[in-house]
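re: ur question from yesterday

yeah so i grabbed the chain u mentioned. its 177 aa long if i counted rite. heres the sequnce exactly as i have it in my notes:
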Amino acid sequence: MKVLGIMGSPRVGGNSDVLLSQALESAKEIAGCRDCKKCNKTGICVLKDDMAEIQEQILESGAVIHSSPVYFWTMTSQMKAYLDRWCVFFDAEWKWQKAYYPKMRGKRIGLITVCGDPDPHTADPIVHSFRMTAEMTRLNWLGCVMASASEKGEIKGNEAALTGAFDLGKKAAAPVS
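ran it thru and got these structure tokens back, copy pasting raw so excuse formatting
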């Protein structure tokens, strides 16, 4: 089974990247949604960037694990741009595009967050966004790994976070029962 990871941090080699690498490895750059609504009719985004490739990878994957550091109590602008571009999967009434529904049904979604605050629950707003996305789309929520780390690479010393990321990756790759 293929598992796709989306890196929402601008710091390559940073804490979010390290944890995502424990589960899998993937990163792309994408532009923000322009809300032109053309994708609601066609299922194809008018923006020409890496999102079309990411969209194909999402459709081919059985699970998607997302990873983002916390910037000002929310996800990074890169991750928000990615999540906003999920509009391509839906029609104007927020129902799955008919072409995508068979490939999205039953898909699993997970999250990894890292914040500089000693309290990893500073990332709760990010978790809420992804959990509600899973609920709205009826995707299967795998859960999240929330960790605290500030300095680049510091997360490598957090055994609980590394184990959590490893376990999340295992859960994502496990056969559907």
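noticed a couple things. The first helix runs from residue 15 to 23. also The mean pLDDT is 90.
anyway ttyl
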